[in-house]
Amino acid sequence: xxxxxxxxxxxxxSQTFDLSPLRHAASTWTSTxxxxxxEYGDPAKVLYQTTEPLPAxxxxxxxxxxxxxxxxxxxxINMVQGIYIVKPPLPxxxxxxxxxxxxxxxxxxxxxxxxxxxxxSINAFGTWQTHxxxxxxxxxxxxxxxxxxxxxxxxxxxxxxxxMLYDYTSLEEGDVIVQxxxxxxxxxxxxxxxxxxxWRTINIIRDRPNKAETVKQLADLGATHVITDADFKNRDVIxxxxxxxxxxxxxxxxxxxxxxxxxxxxxxxxxxxxxxMQPMIIPTGAMIFKDLIFCGFWLGKWNMENSTEERIExxxxxxxxxxxxxxxxxxxxxxxxxxxxTAVKRAQEGFTGAKQVLALDEESxxxxxxxxxxxxxx
Length: 378
Description:
13 helices; Quinone Oxidoreductase, Chain A, domain 1; 2 domains; Rossmann fold; alpha/beta; 378 residues
């Protein structure tokens, strides 16, 4: 049993997670049920479910895995569409992120043991499947006393937020960060880490029917200011906001031009996504008279360019923030693997407010639903 205390909407909350049902180790594995694609295109048309055999025995350096939960991230959708930088050999199992339990180890494996929880250490691992056999070098061990929701989503979004906040400028107490896509999982992590360090945030969201609800959600996480893209038409609103030392962009297009109005001289704007699918619009005046710095960030590249030890250190820092109740999990909607099309469709809709997470079996689904109810009731 794990007793977890966390902060939700300004209140200190406690709950108990019984992880034991998810931590037994199976002695055999024969096949995997996976979501694959054999050509690039519309996920609704090219994704399909298949059941295929796995090797009956393990090579010395391999491990057998039972996946527990795997989120549906934008890079998963983009990979299937063929517009992501990573293009695995086809046919391929979809999914870049997820958490699995080790259920078998080869004779030469030293970094993990049966019962450990692990996450992929490579891009395009193929996490939308019930089981896998893979080299032990392709996984990283994580602490198994995290709630399943956090373990499944620890590898990409909070790590991206962590790196961008610490790698591009030195922020001091009271400094300001401006970001668009602020209600995304990365945006929520940015807000929480910033609030923990007493950095102020200006958080831009799309104008929406449930604006008040979204503003409250972000304020509860520690957001200093929340505005919509429509507010840039009101000069009085913009003039009242402080200028930022760091900007984080995941939208692109005109949203970048808007953000430059809220950046101080020689500030840095980091682009880590392009949700609008439009080229960035950078005003000439912002370049000349503000001397702004524009650069890009991709966690996959950071992982490839840095050592395993450095990545483990980053994960340990993020997990520590989770355990210290600085970082709470994103709002999620769990879906069984067989209902993957529903999850993929929801992930592409606007204003859903929740990350889709595939539960790889009924047992994991029940555990995730239990955690979701506990967070909602706290």
